[in-house]
Amino acid sequence: MVEEEHHTESTCGSFPQTPHSTRELFDALPPLPGLRVELIEGKMIVSPMGSPKHTWTAVFLHNALLPLSLERGWLGAPGGLDVCIEGPRDTLAPDYVLTHPECPLWGHELRSSGVFMVAEVVSPSSVRIDHEEKVRLYALGKVPIYLLIDPISKTPNVTVFSDIKDDTYRTIVKVDMGTAIKLPAPVDFELDTSIFKV
């Protein structure tokens, strides 16, 4: 008679470690084409990428700032880059980012302290987040300028948040879309918002 030996081996080592926080789950996600994934105040927000009109609005902003970016050696990108808010380590995916080439990173994310400006284009699903939560988070992350483009408001408008003190934007300038608005230092640029009226 032949005795069989049975070895029971734990298979725990063959599975990836289970994330223990929303941040760990976020970090473990593979790329999700066509989706925007953000980590806001401990909640993971997954939403579809914006409509073509939404995307074109960010591209129009990029095109308007491109000569300035090239002149100063800065980098601007319409979408596709994540910004890590230093402190809480929340991750936001703005519609536009303006930074310098040596912006510090947190993994694959831009650290908020190295970003000059972010812009968000409001969509029906992002009204509250863009107008409330992101205003607070970008100020907390020390992003000098937050440009909010709201084409879906009853009166389409553009707002510039700047001048951070005590983790809050102290200066808020809002104009109807089609009116010029000043992007303060460090950008220091007069933006003709009629470019967003398509």
Automatic annotation (TrEMBL):
InterPro entries: Nuclease_put_TT1808, Restrct_endonuc-II-like, Uma2. It comes from the Bacteria. The keyword Disulfide bond does not apply. PANTHER family: SLL1072 PROTEIN, SLR1083 PROTEIN. GO terms for molecular function: endonuclease activity. Residues 1-23 are annotated as: Disordered. This is Uma2 family endonuclease. Signal peptide: none annotated. Residues 24-192 form the Putative restriction endonuclease domain. It holds the Pfam family Uma2. It comes from Nonomuraea marmarensis. Keywords: Endonuclease, Hydrolase, Nuclease. The lineage of its organism: Bacteria, Bacillati, Actinomycetota, Actinomycetes, Streptosporangiales. Residues 10-20 have a biased composition (Polar residues).
